[in-house]
Amino acid sequence: MNVDAHIPNLGVARSSRAGITNVFHIELQTRFYHLKEIPPDAPNVDTLFLQVSGFPSKVQRYELEDKNHLGLVKHKVVCRLDAQSNDHAVLRLKTHETHTVDPDGMSGGSAFTVQVVHGQPKAFLAGVTLRGGRDHFHILKVGYIRGFLRSIIDG
After folding, report:
1. For the chain, how are helix, strand and coil distributed in percent, rounded to 5?
2. Over the chain, what is the mean pLDDT?
3. What is the pTM of this model?
4. Is 108 left (phi over 0), alpha (psi -120 to 50) or beta?
5. pLDDT (tens digit, 9 = 90+) per residue, 6-55?
6. Phi-psi label, residue 89: left if phi above 0, alpha if psi -120 to 50, beta otherwise
7. Count of the separate structural domains present in the chain
8. Residue 78: CATH number of its domain
9. Which domain holds residue 45?
10. What's the farthest any 2 CA atoms get from each other in the chain?
């Protein structure tokens, strides 16, 4: 018996007792971030900056009844590493500038980092936003997300 599992960067993986075979959907791959590698463990000075993105509730334009229009407004906030969270799966970030909009609604948004690797800046998915305020955000580290996804694929 085959079971289909939707995996964002692979399209569909078909699993059976014999193992997992990937069926690639090339036309869909451009819609998903390809999680090929995670940021390496490095000293804080190697992290140039981080950026969290999301859709704060207060600035969204919901005009469904009048105009049948949903105006999504995405915010991108530049941050730096802050103090270590008590939870090792979480990073606390400090915003570069105080955010002018209440970030409620940005949870679940992406967080990216630019780190120096072998002397060159390189961008990585850093994690997913858990919560935030006008001057800080907490993100779930991508390594924990990747581990969770692997546990699903590997059974």
Report:
1. 15, 45, 35
2. 80
3. 0.73
4. left
5. 434 334 444 443 344 455 666 766 766 666 788 888 888 899 999 999 98
6. alpha
7. 2
8. 2.40.10.10
9. 36-154
10. 54
